[in-house]
Amino acid sequence: MKMLSSLWILASIILILILASAFFSSAETALTAASDARMRQLASKGDERALIVEALRADREGLIGSILIGNNAVNVFGSALATSVAISLFGEGGLVWATIAMTVLLVVFAEVMPKTYAFAYADRYALRIAPVLKWVVRLLSPLSLGLRLLANQMIRPNPIAESDREEELRGLIELQGDDGNADDRERKAMLSSILDLNELSVDQIMTHRGAVSMVNADDHMDDILRNVLGSPHTRHPVFSGKPDNIIGVLHVKDLLRALGEVEKKGKM
């Protein structure tokens, strides 16, 4: 009778550990999948849980480290207890049964199902567990910090991280503009050119003053219109007297609009 009572207690502890493992797994998914924009909006309105979520995600290394430590600890402890119970019931063969049973339970009920739920309801679930997770991270933070320091000593920093980030940014720009309209493609070209500025020199992008298509404000309107329409450019610097005396910029669209208004008034 006493042995049966002990087995029930161990089984209850194992169940609690599986639930704790499910908590850690779902917390990792929810905190990484939650919307940054929605958390920022809620935080700006004074939502304390959203502020906690933002604070936790500000230190992603500490958050993920603490979650992994807690998750692995409860998984190892639960597997050890399950092995002990199985051996007491089935002898040495209980080791195999414990391994099979804990693998199925942990994969289904502590990994797949919790993470699927957390991903489907990421924002709501992240807000719900944030207060509890804050204290868990604080409790495990000393161990997490120690392991991070050890890992930093053993693993060298990635020397090509900056170039990887640049390639990622270029990829995002390409994805944004490929399926868009003409404005999106123009915006894509502009953003891509910004990334190439450090490879350009001034003489590659400058236009000599002598090659600039300019308009003399003192010319007759017919001459101005002929010059503007014969130019491939839409904007023309306007000077008065000398080319150095720039008094404005003429846009072809504004010129055509003004001519249209004059024509309408003439018909009236």
Number of strands: 3
Q: Main β-sheet, in a few words?
A: 3 strands, mixed
Order of helices and strands: HHHHHHHHHEHEEH
Strand content range: under 5%
Query: Count of helical segments?
Result: 11
Summed up, the domain count is: 3
Question: Which percent range fits the helix content?
Answer: over 70%
Distance between the termini: 109 Å
Shape: elongated
Radius of gyration, in Å, reads 34 Å
In round numbers, the mean pLDDT is 83
Unreliable stretches covering 5 or more consecutive residues: none
Strand order of the largest sheet: 1-2-3
Structural class: mainly alpha
GO cellular component, one term: plasma membrane
Domain CNNM transmembrane: 3-186
Keywords: CBS domain, Cell membrane, Membrane, Repeat, Transmembrane, Transmembrane helix
InterPro entries: CBS_dom_sf, CNNM
